[in-house]
Amino acid sequence: xxVVLCGVGADTGNxxxxxxxxxxxxxxxxxxxxxGATSETATYGSIERRYGDGVxxxxxxxVRPGSDGEWVTDPDDIRETPVHHDPNLDALTYGEHRxxxxxxxxxxxxGDAVGFYAGFPGPESDYKHRYLFGYFTVAERPTxxxxxxxxGAKRAALESHPENAxxxxxxxxxxxxxxxxxxxxxxxxxVVVQGREPGGLLDRAIRLSDRRTGPNYYMDExxxxxxxxxxxxxxxxxxxxxxxALECEISGDALGEFVWERT
Length: 263
Fold this sequence. Notes:
The protein has 263 residues and is α+β, with helices and mostly antiparallel strands. It has one domain (3-262). It has 6 helices and 13 strands. It has helices at residues 75-80, 99-105, 151-158, 165-173, 221-227, 252-262; strands at 3-7, 15-16, 32-33, 62-63, 83-84, 93-96, 113-121, 128-138, 143-145, 190-207, 209-213, 216-219, 246-248. The strands form 4 sheets. Strands 1, 6, 7, 8, 9, 10 and 13 form a 7-stranded mixed sheet that branches. Strand 11 and strand 12 form a beta hairpin. The model has no long low-confidence stretch (mean pLDDT 93).
């Protein structure tokens, strides 16, 4: 049995400011902005905040949909920007094209689990420590979408995951794309993981990191002992900088117990 921890969600490269975790562990899950055409109807102006009145757009001063494009700063334009809702923890679905992530996700089995962490400034610091904010149990073997397949084969692979963000990219764009829509000529495999309960968006975020060395964060030793990551450096378990996918040598049930004990 295996757990894979995936670093996801909006960060300084695509939204500003990055929403905070408060002193009680409460947070807003802000998906990244979608980079191009999509059938997704959810926008920053349609997703209600979990805490307080209003919508996610009310928390944001800017979004940047492209990898190196211009920032969108007009409040009305921010409200109308569609989100790349990945993971979608209402539908319990997650898609990924980053090679290091695909390699760890593609061989998951039913009963394994995927956990999702992000960088959030905390109540007392602007450092973006790493917090677990959601997870789900794997429902079935992941779906692999071959980048060299024709459109019909890709559509057939994605049709059982209609609420997945990559399926909605496909519907809106007519093909899969990666960092930006112009990158359809640089195809990569896409893996789609369908989840089931237990799992979902947590009520309180769980801090995973305890220290920072330069731009990089490292996992708390107590958390390391419970989650049993398969790899570590001389400095400990690396959580980014650029947030890595981490394979943990525990069961999906053990991740659920870890969450229950800490929330």
